[in-house]
Design a protein that fits this description.
globular; 35% helix; alpha/beta; 10 helices; Spore Coat Polysaccharide Biosynthesis Protein SpsA, Chain A; 266 residues
Length: 266
């Protein structure tokens, strides 16, 4: 059985040392923590990491996006499973034992997402169905319409484990088996859709993607790409176009792998 002492954590950092310090404070005592500084251009990450015994710092030569930075960290770890965090996430009390217990309970799990919560405890919407062109447009222009509600699995309180099509990169859990089969993230995505792509590859290779309700993370940041017409939205659409070029017609409507579990439907 997997032990909590085997859990590894990778934090991908870029120019947010105050958030990194808070994130690492909550991780004190974790057996293996690796911070990847994604070419921030300063010593801020090193100054923060020096305050935390046992935390390793790996400096990426260039900022090639979240997926590439995460891969640097994944290759620097030994533990199983590996938790990926953004600096704006904070683990809650008992997180490690809940996570390892949940992973052990689902033997076909390759990739998982933890319960993400706003500071007030409201759930962030990790664990979703695949994007379609209709849901992509609806999420930006008409978030309460049926395509958008179906995409985020509206009507589910996220208080139970279940398979889902994909989970977001922050708070993502990857097993060593998945890393061996998938070789990490596709680094051609600079920002967005590297998580969707990894989950689709996991399903296609015979693994499962799960949402785990027990291990909870506090997550401060609201998604910038959902705030109207802005630069983040441009990157999101650009990543979706790359996803479709890679997967072709299969990317337009991938098989509903995650719908094998019963849920409350919108």
């Amino acid at each position: 059985m997997t032990s909590t002492t085997n859990l590894a954590v990778v934090v991908v950092h870029y120019r947010t040392p105050h958030l990194l310090a808070r994130c690492l404070e909550a991780l004190r005592g974790y057996p293996e923590v690796v911070v990847v500084d994604n070419a921030s251009g300063s010593d801020d990450a090193a100054l923060v990491v020096d305050r935390f015994e046992g935390v390793a710092l790996v400096a990426a030569e260039n900022n090639r996006g979240f997926g590439a930075g995460a891969n640097v960290g994944l290759r620097a770890t030994r533990g199983d499973p590996v938790l990926l965090l953004n600096p704006d996430c904070v683990v809650t009390e008992g997180f490690a034992s809940r996570l390892v217990g949940a992973v052990t309970a689902h033997p076909r799990l390759w990739v998982a997402g933890c319960r993400l919560e706003a500071p007030d405890g409201a759930p962030r919407l990790s664990g979703r169905r695949w994007y379609t062109p209709a849901s992509m447009a609806a999420r930006r222009l008409a978030p309460r319409t049926a395509p958008s509600r179906r995409h985020v699995i509206d009507g589910w309180d996220r208080m139970s484990d279940r398979t889902v099509d994909w989970v977001t990169g922050t708070g993502m859990v990857v097993t060593r088996r998945a890393l061996g089969e998938l070789d990490g993230f596709d680094e051609r995505y600079f920002m967005y859709f590297e998580d969707v792509d990894l989950c689709l590859r996991a399903w296609e290779a015979g693994g499962e993607v799960w949402y785990l309700a027990g291990p909870r993370l506090k997550h401060d940041e609201a998604r910038a790409s959902a705030r109207g017409l802005n630069r983040a939205l441009f990157w999101h659409l650009r990543a979706y176009a790359r996803f479709l070029r890679k997967w072709g017609r299969r990317g337009l409507r991938p098989p509903p792998y995650g719908d094998s579990a019963p849920i409350l439907r919108p």
